[in-house]
Design goal:
The protein has 85 residues and is an alpha+beta fold. The protein is built from three helices and five strands; from the N terminus they run H-E-H-E-E-E-H-E. It has two domains: 30 residues, no CATH class; 36 residues, no CATH class.
């Protein structure tokens, strides 16, 4: 992978929603890098710790505090206990 070939020092990655895939996101975490990317509005997520079915990102409800600080969610298809903010 080019990251290793170039030897570029970095701690974080900003990505477009097209790169917000399970493979890419988990690889960034394996590299211990911080990343930020928007999720497409139709991605299915869970913010209820499994008490309600997955729902579209654009149908989530947000408190004022969550709008400022974010919230931890599970993306459908990711490992069982894997959450992102």
């Amino acid at each position: 992978m080019w990251v290793y070939q170039k030897g570029l020092p970095f701690t974080g990655v900003l990505m477009d929603s097209g790169y917000a895939t399970k493979t890419v996101m988990l690889h960034r975490e394996q590299m211990q890098k911080t990343y930020s990317c928007p999720l497409k509005t139709n991605r299915r997520v869970d913010d209820s710790a499994g008490t309600t079915p997955y729902q579209r990102v654009d149908s989530l409800t947000w408190t004022q505090a969550q709008r400022k600080q974010g919230k931890r969610i599970k993306i459908r298809g990711f490992p069982k206990d894997h959450k992102v903010k």
